[in-house]
Amino acid sequence: MYLKCHSRLKDGKEHHYYSIAEKVACAGGRRVERHVFYLGEVNDSQRKDGSNSLKPLIVEAQQQNQAGALRQ
């Protein structure tokens, strides 16, 4: 799993949206990206503290993903 940033220009200002994603194997040996957890927009102050404030969200996403894998 990894943190993915999506950027877009809106009203002349750049906005950054984040999600937790993972690579999943599909038929035919292809690997596709699956979004596990959407974090939404992260403002400048949150980005400066990024490593500390995003860790709990990443851990939660990993736990949810593991629980889902156990059910399948």
Structure description:
There is one protein chain. It contains 2 helices and 3 strands. It is of the alpha+beta class and 72 residues long. The chain has a 3-stranded antiparallel β-sheet, with helices on one face. The longest helix is centred in the last third of the chain and has 22 residues.
**Regions with pLDDT < 50 over 5+ consecutive residues?**
none
Amino- and carboxy-terminal Cα gap: 19 Å
Order of helices and strands: EEEHH
Quaternary class: single chain
Key terms for this structure?
about 70 residues, alpha+beta, three-stranded antiparallel β-sheet, flat
Ordered list of secondary-structure elements with their pairings:
Layout: E1 2-10, E2 13-25, E3 31-41, H1 44-48, H2 50-71
Antiparallel strand pairs: 1-2, 2-3
Summarize the structure.
The protein is an alpha+beta fold and 72 residues long.
